[in-house]
Design a protein that fits this description.
The longest helix has 20 residues, at 106-125. This protein starts with a strand and ends in a 27-residue tail after the last strand. 12% of the residues are buried. The chain has helices spanning 12-19, 27-34, 41-47, 72-77, 106-125, 140-146; strands at residues 4-9, 37-38, 51-52, 87-93, 129-133, 153-161. The chain folds into two domains: 1-22 and 85-188, 3-Layer(aba) Sandwich (NADH Oxidase), CATH 3.40.109; 24-80, no CATH class. Helix content is 30%, strand content 16%. It is globular and about 45 Å long. The strands form two sheets. Strands 1-4-6-5 form a four-stranded antiparallel beta sheet. A two-stranded parallel sheet has the order 2-3. By secondary structure, the chain is α+β, with helices and mostly antiparallel strands.
């Protein structure tokens, strides 16, 4: 199902306008991430899913995180501008093009995931870095800057560019195939 459009942004003024938008991080976002945290490499290796807590500021590593309990410096860092990149791809979802017989357009949403993966694999094969930017999805200002009609939704955005340095190495985990496959019956 081709239920999407892609806006390629490479104009410096437009990139600057989007990059200067304040993108605050919500308490809900931090609390949802807390559920994915492991507090040691051993725990992360055992769970085989989630993130290592040391990747985040100390205040984010508590189950009762509240914005009103952190200092001004950390609060300012949470409102960081979007780092610059030479190209930004904004993938726009058109709910009126939903897949037939797909309640809630489940197939259309799956289709967006395929688009994201294909773009990521293509970029990676050319040595181009790609970073998903989910924080622009709920920004009406971005739709205004790019002239995106109100009836369309920003599904996700991707920053593209050639890396200037090696990314920081973090422990990455993946479940073994046997941990999520079943034969003939669920649970078997």
């Amino acid at each position: 199902m081709q239920n999407f459009e892609i806006v390629v942004v490479d104009d410096r003024k437009t990139l600057k306008a989007i990059g200067s938008l304040e993108r605050p991080i919500s308490e809900a976002f931090i609390r949802e991430n807390y559920q994915q945290l492991s507090f040691s490499e051993e725990e992360l290796l055992k769970k085989k899913t989630g993130l290592l807590a040391t990747m985040f500021p100390p205040s984010w590593r508590t189950p009762d995180f509240r914005l009103d309990k952190i200092g001004e410096e950390e609060l300012a860092a949470m409102r960081r501008p979007l780092p610059t990149s030479p190209v930004l791809l904004v993938v726009v979802y058109d709910p009126s093009r939903r897949a037939p017989a797909s309640e809630g357009d489940f197939l259309g949403i799956v289709s967006l995931g395929c688009v994201m993966q294909n773009m990521w694999l293509a970029a990676e094969s050319m040595g181009i870095g790609l970073q998903i930017v989910s924080s622009l999805s709920s920004e009406p200002e971005v739709k205004g800057i790019l002239g995106i009609p109100d009836d369309l939704t920003i599904a996700f955005s991707c920053r593209l560019g050639y890396p200037i340095s090696e990314p920081a190495k973090h422990l990455r985990v993946r479940r073994d195939v046997r941990d999520f496959t079943h034969q003939n019956r669920f649970g078997d």
